[in-house]
Backbone:
């Protein structure tokens, strides 16, 4: 087992979050941004877990190294779970955070505050050559705001009010966000496994 882990993402914001969270384990983190012209891995699953598995196992087989993949998104109760696994492309094929936010705000325009409940959900898949893929998940509960608040973060952060802290995700610093985010919770659930793999050897 090496001390290297490939994070299966080209999203700079997400990559930064993972790098911050992984530093405590002394792991050398790389991402798809470090592989020139790597093609996108098609996400054909019907759940967050299936998509995470596809990305992790495909890349692990290709590189013959440990790969962590996530599939995460926003689940809105009033919209029957949408945008869900289609969160990144909610407004169209091209990923566009602003267009996605605009569409969601429009879809929720007549929904009263008590029915605007939502959560960010993250499924992590850790693929290790020769081993069974490991799955963990995390979530962050909140509600959908009626307009943007804050300038930090990415994705739906400006319109997601995080119940635990009483602010939008975009009003939090990276450090504050990492304490409560769905990816942070998922990684905390992965922590005992990582400790067993890398620290207690």
Residues:
């Amino acid at each position: 087992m090496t001390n290297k882990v490939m994070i299966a993402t080209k999203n700079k914001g997400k990559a930064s979050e993972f790098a911050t969270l992984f530093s405590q384990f002394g792991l050398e983190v790389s991402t798809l941004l470090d592989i020139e012209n790597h093609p996108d891995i098609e996400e054909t699953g019907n759940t967050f877990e299936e998509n995470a598995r596809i990305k992790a196992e495909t890349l692990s087989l290709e590189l013959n190294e440990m790969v962590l993949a996530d599939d995460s998104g926003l689940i809105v109760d009033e919209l029957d779970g949408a945008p869900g696994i289609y969160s990144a492309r909610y407004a169209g094929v091209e990923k566009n955070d602003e267009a996605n936010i605009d569409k969601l705000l429009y879809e929720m325009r007549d929904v009263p505050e008590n029915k605007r409940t939502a959560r960010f959900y993250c499924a992590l898949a850790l693929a290790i050559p020769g081993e069974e893929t490991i799955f963990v998940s995390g979530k962050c509960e909140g509600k959908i705001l009626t307009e943007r608040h804050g300038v930090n973060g990415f994705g739906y952060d400006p319109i997601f009010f995080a119940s635990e802290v009483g602010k939008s995700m975009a009003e939090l610093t990276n450090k504050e966000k990492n304490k409560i985010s769905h990816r942070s919770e998922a990684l905390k659930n992965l922590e005992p496994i990582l400790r067993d793999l890398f620290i207690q050897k």
